[in-house]
Amino acid sequence: MNYNGYIIRLFFRILILVALILGLVYSIDNEYTSSITIISFGILYFLYSTYSFVKRRFVVMDDFFEAVKYRDFSRWFPEDRGPKDIRFLYKGFNEVNRTIKEINSKNEAQYVYLQKILEMVDIGIIAYNLETGDVLWSNDSFRETLDVPSFKNIRFVEGRKPDLYDAIFETYHKEPNSISIAVQNEKIKVLISDTVFQVKEDPFKLIVLQNIDDTLNRNESEAWKKLLSVMTHEIMNSIAPISSLADTLQSHLQLTLDNPKDYPLEIEDLNSGIKTIKNRSEGLLKFAKTYRSLSKVTHLNLDRKKITELFETIQLLMQPSLDVKNINIDFKVTPPKIELDIDSYLIEQVLINLILNAVDACKHRSDPQIRVIAEQKPNRNIVIKVYDNGSGIPQDIMDSIFIPFFTSKSTGSGIGLSLCKQIMLLHKGKILVNSREEEGTVFTLVF
């Protein structure tokens, strides 16, 4: 609307000028001397007024463009003074300045965020001008890795450590490359890569540097801590039922010793219990050796095993501790003669882990139930399923339960299920899970 008003006013000025010029021609033609003088002054006045009217807008625009040229976006144009069309221009210019200042402010904030992020990473980063050597940006990790103070030009490093300068700045490493550099009178290994990029007319080089020795040492230390924690967890999982079974046998023996007539010694039960403890102890020793080099295992000690025998061993081992907790466990095999080629010690370890997880899930149930079922599918796959009616697994962590060291328990190591998965993969099988919160969980071993 303001632009339309400006055009209308300019049009009327031009119309008046045309009318005055026609009047001047008419007066000259009729020799009206007085009219000629008055109309001439009128023409001069409107010519000057129209010139000023047009110039005023261009002066304002030129003033704004001059500020843009020198990037002076702090200037504020008065929106409450001057003609209406000029106030409208001022308002538009102020809006442009506000927008540009907001964009600059966001860009500055993003730059600060980027700086802080790059400062926090433990990888050394530097960018510098290839022609002048001036440093565009570098973080503390880069300077700490090279053991140099803050510098503005890479020639500083050349003057102090020429060998280091040649290895880092003069040699191109388009692909990540491991090199040895001398820092503080010792050799350290670093992984280095670089790239060249263009900013306007200036070429820049970006170098990324990582201290491999520090990373390897930290990872090795963490790996040892986790390994010790895991081994302790798994060994305790096997020792607990062994201890429970040993206590049961010892109690029976004590009763027989104290009152042999009322409590005769069941040699078969005693032999079966001792045999179970012996087998599980051997399995525990084998498991410890196997886990130590699990990632390198290429051969399993496979033997033909009846699933009924496997279940009998697990039941004999787990039943005493489950009885103490009043948890009912049922084993079922369909058909009863199913056999598997497995490393029985490792599969026992898998089933112990799954049953102990089921026990933990059922601990707050009034009627805890655990079922272990084996069956042969029409496609000839053999599956073993471990059911429980416990609290279930939350859906938001379902995808993470097989990740090593992930656990939702305050005292768990997070290795049990990942180890079960690894053992099943060694058997060329798989482990599946289906769970609903407050209804229960079923783990399926597919062979």
Can I get a quick summary?
By secondary structure, the chain is α+β, with helices and mostly antiparallel strands. Helices cover 55% and strands 19% of the residues. It has 3 domains: 103 residues, no CATH class; 90 residues, PAS domain (Beta-Lactamase, 2-Layer Sandwich), CATH 3.30.450; 181 residues, 2-Layer Sandwich (Heat Shock Protein 90).
Describe the structure.
This protein is α+β, with helices and mostly antiparallel strands. It is built from 11 helices and 12 strands. It has helices at residues 2-30, 33-69, 84-120, 140-146, 155-160, 162-170, 212-258, 267-292, 307-324, 344-361, 416-426; strands spanning 124-129, 135-138, 177-183, 186-199, 202-211, 303-306, 328-334, 339-342, 369-376, 382-388, 430-436, 440-446. The strands form 3 sheets. Strands 2-1-5-4-3 form a 5-stranded antiparallel β-sheet. A 5-stranded mixed β-sheet has the order 7-9-10-12-11, with helices on one face. Strands 6-8 form a two-stranded antiparallel ribbon. Helix 2 runs parallel beside helix 3 (84-120). The radius of gyration is 43 Å and the shape is elongated. It starts with a helix and ends with a strand. The mean pLDDT is 79. Residues 230-447 form the Histidine kinase domain. Keywords: ATP-binding, Kinase, Membrane, Nucleotide-binding, Transferase, Transmembrane, Transmembrane helix, Two-component regulatory system.
